[in-house]
Amino acid sequence: MPELPEVETVARELKKTIIGKTINYIEPIWIKSFENNSDLNVSEQKVISIDRRGKYLIICLEKSYLVVHLRMTGQLLYFDNEKETNLDDYIRVIIKFHYGMLLFKDVRKFGRIYHVENIKSFLSHIGPDALDENFTEKCFANKLQSSKMSIKAFLLSQKFVSGMGNIYTDEVLFLSKVHPSTIAANIPKKRRKNLFINMQSVLKNSVQNMGSTISDYRDPAGKKGKNQYYFNVYGRDGMACKVCESNIVKMKFAGRGTHYCPKCQIVNY
DNA sequence: CTAATCACCTGAAGGC
DNA sequence: TGCCTTCAGGTGATTA
User: Fold this and answer.
1) What is the C-alpha separation between A3 and A257, in angstroms, rounded?
2) Any atom of strand B under 7 A from CB of A153?
């Protein structure tokens, strides 16, 4: 479920609640949800800061890191008062602080919490964050020009730029008037620039709206996002394009449900 | 290198 | 009501 804006929202909420707290213990309920890659103890380490790279949320401890990937249905829920919690369903990992606790809820069990010491090597296969200020239009253009992948697959792969997922990719391609099957390297210079600008604005707008909630996504306080009210194409198949009134089409592309306007979004250039 | 398929999981929704 | 199929904000391995 969560793409960059949702993970960023979670990160911002966690900054308000768990920085400075000391971990009492971490308890995996579903064993595969927690992958311990370090001999160091998590217990008695203090939370120093919260970071994010693409869809990875990074909880920086004194000597190591807890790295969270929510995948499809993961949620990090924070509770000050343990009596407010209900541990009933789908809680896969408990991170207990001396005061308060963070619960990792995940219906489909795809999500992970990793305990690692070397964050750089752990994330070495991931490209720069889409909103990283050092990731410029020029960097983006260079990568586009050297790829023969379809633009949809290019944006979904996290190795060129990280943070884009299925929803925001469809939204960005619509605003950029680029058909999802267009070969990345074939996109002309002017539209490359457009693509980059739209990618940033779509993501930033969604962060402003606290992310998109289709079904499962919640922030650590349990709140839904509001960005889903502003989609142009995602989930709007069969409905009129907001620009040209053609019917929005949905089809399987790059292995994912892909929404686009057949009139506004032109194939090849 | 790129693309397609499966695998990992569970629940919701639609067809019959 | 109930069964069966398909689909879902993701990604990594494997196979063409």
Assistant:
1) 16
2) yes
Two structure tokens written together for A130: 């889409």
φ, ψ for residue A150, nearest 5 deg: -65, 150
A148 touches strand C (CB under 7 A): no
What string of pLDDT tens digits covers the 269 residues of chain A?
699 999 999 999 999 999 999 999 999 999 999 999 999 999 999 999 999 999 999 999 999 999 999 999 999 999 997 766 666 689 999 999 999 999 999 999 999 999 999 999 999 999 999 999 999 999 999 999 999 999 999 999 999 999 999 999 999 999 999 999 999 999 999 999 999 999 999 999 999 999 999 999 999 999 999 999 999 999 999 999 999 999 999 999 988 999 999 999 987 66
Q: Which two tokens stand for residue A46?
A: 């203090």
Cβ A73 vs Cβ A216: under 8 Å: yes
Q: Is A2 a catalytic residue?
A: yes
Catalytic residue (choose from A3, A6, A13, A171): A3
Is the C-beta of residue A108 closer than 7 Å to nucleic acid chain B?
yes
| Inter-residue contact A127 to A55 (CB < 8 Å) | no
- Per the CB < 8 A criterion, the answer to whether A22 and A45 are in contact is yes
Within 152-181 of chain A, which residues have Cβ less than 7 Å from strand C?
156, 158, 165-167
Whole-number distance in Å between A64 CA and C2 C1':
51
Whether A256 is a known active-site residue: answer yes
| Type of residue at A11 | A
